[in-house]
Amino acid sequence: MFERVDTSVPLWWLVLAGPVAIALGAARKRKSLIGMGLAGSTLATAAMIDIAASPIVPGANDNLTAVAVLVALAERLRAEPMRACG
User: How many helices (H) and strands (E) does the chain have?
Assistant: First the structure.
């Protein structure tokens, strides 16, 4: 899996690490692991609350995904035009 990733580690892995650490700590009865997971989950929750409280999230509201879809659709239609219906 790591060989296929050509960029940095996805940020959602850090968010997922907290609950996973809590589950592993509970399964192995390790309070230290549960504590680390709780701390990570608390930090992730605080970050999400901060993001949600802001009316502007840099880079998230720029409609770049929609633009990319429209460009890909235009390229596809140019390469394979649709036939008229009816």
Answer: 3, 0
pTM: 0.55
Provide the residue type at 85 as one letter.
Answer: C
Say if residue 7 is exposed, middle or buried (CB neighbours under 10 Å; 0-12, 13-18, 19+): exposed
Q: Which amino acid is at 77?
A: L
Q: What is the pLDDT of residues 13-44, one digit of tens each?
A: 888 999 999 999 999 999 999 999 999 999 99
Question: What residue spans of the chain are helical by DSSP H?
Answer: 12-28, 31-53, 64-79
Calpha distance 72→70 (Å, rounded)? 5
Run of H or E including 9: none
